[in-house]
Amino acid sequence: MQEELDLFIEEANEQMGKAISHLESELLKIRAGKATPNIVDGLVVDYYGSPTPINQVGNVSVADSRTLTIQPWEKNMLQPIERSIIAANIGITPQNDGNMIRLFLPPLTEERRKELVKRALGEGEQSKVAIRSIRREAMEQVKKLQKNGLSEDIGKDAEEKIQGTTDKYIALVDKLLATKEKEIMTV
Question: What CATH number should be reported for the domain whose range is 2-29+109-185?
């Protein structure tokens, strides 16, 4: 019984960690006015019939704080990359000069910054919901074990441990969101 209980707690901890990792990757995609290759992460290009990430068909680099360049390894990939960026609707119009694609990031307005903060907070809320859902499932597992003969004291200790882990991860979400909000709102 104790081994099963430890397994549930460990699994919940692992899943909550994955929720945090997901939040971090989503927050990286929200641009804060600075050019970063993460802006095009997740965008795919039709590379000879198969969807391929942009960073696998060309070199994505930062030219300066407001400019991102994509140098494809094959010249015939310029058009597909350009179409992919336009279709992704990331708010940036690609500039194709025949050799590479440049993405000029416009300076963020106050209104746009507030929208980005709102989006970041939405991602954070989704992570919190996921973490709470993981906690609920782990608590249900503990209750099942209690019905099958696990002592009440051990069950209560396990529930406290699960709640402590949940609180730790929720605090981490809040910390990540505060950092991202500060990053976005800094002019």
Answer: 1.10.132.20
